[in-house]
Amino acid sequence: MKAVVLVGGFGSRLRPLTIDVPKQMIPVVGVTMLERVLSHLKAHGVTEAVLALGYLPDVFQEAFPDGESMGVKLRYSVESEPLDTAGAVRLAVETAGIDSTFLVVNGDILSTFDFTSIVNFHKNKGGLATVALTPVDDPSRFGVVVSDEQGRVRSFVEKPPRETAPTSLINAGVYVFEPEGLDMAPLGEPTSMERLVFPELAKSDQLFSLEMPGYWIDAGTPASLLQVSLDILRGKVVGKDLSALQRAVTGRDLSQTETDCYVGEGCVLEDNVDVRNSVLESQVTVCAQATVRDSVILPGAVIGEGALIDSSIVGHQAFVPPGSIVVNGSVISRYAELMPGCQVVGERVPS
């Protein structure tokens, strides 16, 4: 089976981490976000994935020079201008010559959904498209999807007040399509899946939905990227088999000093550090007396002596000077160098 993975967005919600890298290429506990998506697709029979590229396409192509990742063959569909969701999928279908039922997934959605079950549901219903639904506590931040007892989609309600929302089920960013389900999307023209294709398919009773049980998260914000990383440590997210207690660290045994952490290859942790419930990607250095709690430290970053990192993300090769404090959901960009002894509280640097 084939899949289209939407990875063309600018990653604006994750700035400044995405200034020069697409969000799907940010590591999430040892492997990139994209590799986690591909691994899950592979587990459900997908053998070829078409990456719908837009922002910084060369980064993806250079990362996978053999045209393969996680056991999935890769094809590339590159937009010359932003085509919106349906336009990007239509171009990918034409580029790869997809001529049978296929999956579509947003590249920043991580889940434990049973893709096999929604494909089977789609084929049994005989429609042109099926959208996966997931429940949320507060639907007022999303568009909800109203369906009948047979699963036919009847309407879409954008950001309803929580107390009057007709349902708590939202579009989960996972779809099953027949190629002709995209015929209304002009090739090479910007077209919205949510505003054009889905409403038109619903009018003709060709759009179905299925509520999917399991873990789901939109990992496209700093808060959700941090959340999914910590959820992986807790075993809530499936994907590549990774030990949350990996000890590939230079210098010493960490078994008595770090709790519930992922410590990537080539990390250096000096004496008397306190690292708890955190992800240290490869080549990270945590200097003596430093504390890292409930945080993600991306590859090559250096946490200076006596610094405190709490509930925050430190970008690739950033330098947090001695005695500095980075807390309360702060995000430090790639290559950033902070002022010695600074305090960053709930901020993005640069803003």
UniProtKB/TrEMBL annotation:
<dbReference type="InterPro" id="IPR005835">
    <property type="entry name" value="NTP_transferase_dom"/>
</dbReference>
<keyword id="KW-0548">Nucleotidyltransferase</keyword>
<dbReference type="InterPro" id="IPR011004">
    <property type="entry name" value="Trimer_LpxA-like_sf"/>
</dbReference>
<dbReference type="Pfam" id="PF24894">
    <property type="entry name" value="Hexapep_GlmU"/>
</dbReference>
<protein>
    <submittedName>
        <fullName>Mannose-1-phosphate guanylyltransferase</fullName>
    </submittedName>
</protein>
<dbReference type="InterPro" id="IPR056818">
    <property type="entry name" value="GlmU/GlgC-like_hexapep"/>
</dbReference>
<dbReference type="InterPro" id="IPR050486">
    <property type="entry name" value="Mannose-1P_guanyltransferase"/>
</dbReference>
<dbReference type="GO" id="GO:0016779">
    <property type="term" value="F:nucleotidyltransferase activity"/>
</dbReference>
<feature type="domain" description="Glucose-1-phosphate adenylyltransferase/Bifunctional protein GlmU-like C-terminal hexapeptide">
    <location>
        <begin position="256"/>
        <end position="326"/>
    </location>
</feature>
<feature type="domain" description="Nucleotidyl transferase">
    <location>
        <begin position="2"/>
        <end position="233"/>
    </location>
</feature>
<keyword id="KW-0808">Transferase</keyword>
<dbReference type="InterPro" id="IPR029044">
    <property type="entry name" value="Nucleotide-diphossugar_trans"/>
</dbReference>
<dbReference type="Pfam" id="PF00483">
    <property type="entry name" value="NTP_transferase"/>
</dbReference>
